[in-house]
Amino acid sequence: MLHTLLFLCMYFLGFVLAITTNPAVSFALYEAVYFFYPSDRWWGTNVPDISYSFYTVILMLGMLARELAKGSAQPRLLSAPQFRWTYFLLFLYGIAWFYAVSPDEHFEAFIYYLKLVVIVSVAFKLVDTTRKLDLCLWGYIFGSWYVSVLVYQTGRDRFGRVEGIGTVDSPDANGIAAAIAPSLVACLYYFWTKSNKLHKLIFAFAGVFIANALILINSRGSFLAAAISIVFFVYYMFFSSLQRKSQKMIAVIIAVAGIAGFVYLADDTFFARVQTMQNVEVNKEQQTGATRLVFWASAWELAKDRPFGSGFQGFNFYAPEYLPEDVDTGSRNRSVHSSWFEVLSEVGYLGLLIFMM
User: Fold this and answer.
1) Number of other CB atoms surrounding residue 196 within 10 Å
2) Among 113, 126, 180, 305, which residue's beta carbon has the most beta carbons within 10 A?
3) C-beta of residue 181 within 8 angstroms of C-beta of residue 141
4) CA–CA distance, 347 with 97 (Å, rounded to integer)
């Protein structure tokens, strides 16, 4: 019941605040709804079966239309180089439909990507001040915290992972871990910059849950990404030429507290999985981190024969032709397990270059 009340209060309050105070709240609400994902939660039957994300996007569009009607200055989409490259990549995925190995599936994936681009474009137009950007990051942290609570309540399965708590486009453990990992660094940033002790406590509270979730989920890639990001952040705090009062001392305290907290939260199951990253031998019958190197090499060979890509899940389709004959990890129609090589296999060399830019 608490989950239901939390979601409904958040949803209705988000609509009210977006309309009456700040239009950027609409995007923060969209982020939170993405993580709550009521249609696939055990408490989802307690709320009306409607597309909450859809109506939140309608709210975003309405807020943008109102701001434009007021004559408010809005940032130009094409002023950000990332948007120019994003639109170019969207165009390539549209062209790839004509030669995709699975045209229907490719078209569906293209529509998902198109929706994403539209939503982020609207958000960019709405978020034109630092204050509004803070609201969006807070919405992201709030959603990540909620998923972390679900991870804590669900616990690991017999394989040492936490499944069944993902979102519509990140249903598996690795996907949802990657989705929440950056929020841990955002918590660290706000803990550092906020002067109000209550605010510091809130972000520390959220950060502990998110860190615990990453450990329980046992996603090696997400843990490594979060660890490297935190090390870089603390390094920047300590050596930056722009120093706040007692900043170096705070950096040391954060580092010590982080190490102590990690040692407390991590368990034998987590350490055992992390140690598997040291395994560089390819297991030809079971998928490991090293086996994925074989997948990536095969994707590169695929690109040589199909330089413009093969459309959505092109590697999955052609993998049996390019994987070594003695590599069979349950199925030879494998995913490539890399965003970079996935783009390469779907829209070719030009697509990979644009994605990198």
Assistant:
1) 8
2) 180
3) no
4) 10
Q: Is 279 left (phi over 0), alpha (psi -120 to 50) or beta?
A: beta
Report the DSSP beta bridge partners of residue 167: 170
Assess whether pLDDT exceeds 70 at residue 273: no
Residue linked to tokens 């709240």: 25
Q: Distance between CA atoms of 225 and 177, rounded to whole angstroms?
A: 10
**pTM for this model (two decimals):** 0.83
Contact criterion met (CB below 8 Å) for 332 and 286: no
Packed helices 25-36 and 103-126: angle between N→C axes, nearest 10 degrees: 140
Which conformational region is residue 196 in: left (phi greater than 0), alpha (psi within -120 to 50 degrees), or beta?
beta
Answer for the pair 186, 207: CB distance below 8 angstroms, yes or no: no
CA distance 16 to 244: 36
Token duo for residue 196: 């109000």
Instruction: Please tell me what DSSP assigns to residue 284.
Output: S
H or E element: which one contains 33? helix 25-36
What sections of the chain are H helices per DSSP?
2-20, 25-36, 52-70, 81-96, 103-126, 130-154, 173-193, 197-217, 220-239, 247-265, 268-275, 289-305, 314-322, 339-356
Contact in structure between 33 and 56 (CB atoms under 8 Å): yes
Least confident piece of the model among 153-157, 194-198, 317-321, 347-351? 153-157
Residue 285 pLDDT > 60: no
Check: CB of residue 167 under 8 Å from CB of residue 176. Answer: yes
**Rounded to an integer, what distance in angstroms lies between the CA atom of residue 137 and that of residue 33?**
14
Length of the chain equals 357
Residue 157 has pLDDT above 80, yes or no: no
List the structure tokens of 217.
């989920």
